[in-house]
Amino acid sequence: MSGTEENLNEMLILRREKLNKLIDEGKNPFLIEKYDFSHYSSDIVNNFEEFEEKNVSVAGRIMSKRGHGKVMFVDLQDSEGKIQLFVKKDALGDEEYETFKTYDIGDIVGVRGEVFKTKTQEVSIRASEVTLLCKSLQILPEKFHGLKDPDLRYRQRYVDLIVNPEVKETFILRSKIIKAVREYLDNRGFIEVDTPILSPIAGGANARPFITHHNTLDIEMYLRIANELYLKRLIVGGFDKVYEMGRMFRNEGMDYKHNPEFTNIELYQAYVDYEEMMRLTEELVAYAAEKTLGSAKINYQGKEIDLTPPWRRLDMEDAIKEYAGVDFSEINTDEEALKIAKEKGIELKPGMTRGHVISEMFEEFCEEHLVQPTFVIGHPVEVSPLAKRNPDDPRKTNRFEAFINTWEIANAFSELNDPIDQKQRFVDQLKQKELGDDEAHMMDTDFVNALEVGLPPTGGLGIGIDRMIMLLTNQSSIRDVILFPTMKPVEKDEESNKEE
């Protein structure tokens, strides 16, 4: 064991000894149930003239201690900021001051006293009473970003939030962005609804689901990968405008823009098409930016991005022609498409068609160029099992994906409401599943039945809320906008390190 570890263990032991002493003296802080405080630190600091020479009470965490002898200066942090405490032996009394001197950085205290400014003009509270509300038995790092293991910030988010105020600001902004999204939709007559998270069928997207088991029914159930099919059932049932924001779950890879559970919003509006969904998307994103940041022009990691509508429209085949030099208007058979794909280094998979090749080539050669907001349209039917066909070219669908900073942040289409076509597409998806595609769509006979009852012409939209928040908060990883991102268990990390 290193000297540093020994010292750390000694400090942890000392904190527990301090707690035991307090308990022996009848001062167990964990027995305190409440503390009435009058103000937050920011109220006092920002409005000093109103508070000068007035008595206040605050509560928060000790972040630093300075001084010795009969006077100590303490930085107290609450949920709104920091304020300095001026703690003097004469004001507290000998016994209480000696007890206060034993308090550690990280301890939570309640303080009563008079507001004043020090000689250096710092707004402070002259403490007349200090109450220990919680004894911290762990040691706060002085600079959490400096720790060797960056994953610890995500594993111990509670510490991250304490020592890095900017992290907390990101999540406050996240809350405001989500509020703005809801506000935009509510103001336009949309109704927020709830649909099942557990379902016997994982539908609404092409993704690998998480599987669980319902003991009473003795059936497999799936965490939802999307809420699309339930929301469309509500349009069948007579709702004209619905949305749901919530967690989705996909049993797939993890990287800087993917987490197995993530926040998504899906919305559906009767009697409109995907063109209306485009207008709604660009307006909603710009509204959220203006409402929370004051401008639709943002800076993301040094790049200026203008979210102001209207956004660029780009056909998928035109994008491939522009960025990959392949013109699919001259390629009409699967054989020709597969030959081109092989020449371009695209991995060929069983059952691939011309449509699959177009989708793969777009992903490989085009997405990286789409920095400014762009609606990509003209998706092949093969990769769009729930979208209406384009009447001018039945190989395509009336669908768009919205790209910003090379990321897909939204997916939408004129919803397929032909039950016969929909059933056949589900059948085609089952064939893909049999060929080894774990992400192919399952058959949902009840949804087909709902379409047979009758779904009016409908526009649908899904937006990846976490990615949108990454853009608006200027964060480079999805882990920085999810309070508790999915992490590999510590035990597995330790085993990996031993193997290395």
Class of secondary structure makeup? alpha+beta
Low-pLDDT parts are 144-148
User: What is the CATH H-level superfamily of the largest domain?
Assistant: Bira Bifunctional Protein, Domain 2
Named at the architecture level, the CATH assignment of the largest domain is 2-Layer Sandwich
Q: How large is the share of residues in beta strands?
A: 25-35%
Backbone CA Rg = 29 Å
CATH top level of the largest domain? Answer: Alpha Beta
Major sheet summary line: 8 strands, mixed
Oligomer: single chain
Topology readout:
Blueprint: H1 3-24, H2 41-46, H3 48-51, E1 55-68, E2 71-78, E3 81-88, H4 89-92, H5 94-101, E4 108-117, E5 123-134, H6 151-155, H7 157-163, H8 165-186, E6 191-192, E7 198-199, E8 211-214, E9 219-223, H9 228-236, E10 241-249, E11 261-270, H10 274-293, E12 297-300, E13 303-306, E14 312-315, H11 316-324, H12 334-343, H13 354-365, E15 374-377, E16 389-390, E17 393-397, E18 399-404, E19 407-414, H14 419-434, H15 445-454, E20 458-464, H16 465-473, H17 490-499
Parallel strand pairs: 3-5, 6-10, 14-15
Antiparallel strand pairs: 1-2, 1-4, 2-3, 4-5, 7-9, 8-9, 10-11, 11-20, 12-13, 15-18, 16-17, 18-19, 19-20
Helix pairs in contact: 7-8, 8-10, 8-16, 9-15, 11-13, 12-13, 14-15
